[in-house]
Amino acid sequence: MRDYSNHATNRAESRDVEITDIRTCVVEGNFEWNLIEVETDAGVTGIGEAYRGGVPDVVEYTKRFLIGENPLDVERIFRRIVQEMSGHGGTTGKVVTAASGIEIALWDAAGKILDLPVYQLLGGKFRDEVRIYCDCHAGEAYAVDDGYTAYADTEAHSPAAYANEARRVVDTGFTALKFDLDMSMDNEIDPSTDDSRTTPSRTNAMSSRPSVRRSGTGSIWRSTVTGTTPSKARSVWPRRSPSST
User: Fold this and answer.
1) What does the domain layout of the chain look like in residue ranges?
2) Is 12 strand, coil or helix?
């Protein structure tokens, strides 16, 4: 097995930098958002983000072998995390999630240390701007008061609720938005079939939701249907020309 610990000793003084601390801050939203800080002895702090799921504990564990590492060795450090954490899941789940967040923070630190934008370190610039969309779920259906694992009642998934949320998002300045059309009951196994998690009535209900939103916001929407198949998705989303999407 290859040793990914630091064996490089020949570095320019300006790039002879060490990691001094790694911290995690958990922001509670519709689920936990993990922000990761990598501090260095160069007075630079890199910031990354990791998906939910046990990340703080994993990050805390990595400090035992990452403190003292050079933050500029991004690829090697990522591989070392996976290698050192092989007994904790290695290439799956929360280990890779935490490793990815640390990697983002390392790239951020590297850009600051070298006084270069990260895109330059990753191969160069493609564009000046990137269009973003607002993932607004179903509005009230994913309100924080309902928790990030508990769905709201059926009224919160009504076409009118989706339309109201779409208008609110457009009013904030977004030019694209996204909804999840399915509800918790859409993902329940249908006892009448052996390979389906939806029914014609559920599909009809899902297909009615975007039509109401579209009438109130024009064509700036995108949607996903989870717990379904390509053929079922096509039944919800008829083929459209590029100008209408």
Assistant:
1) 13-121, 134-244
2) coil
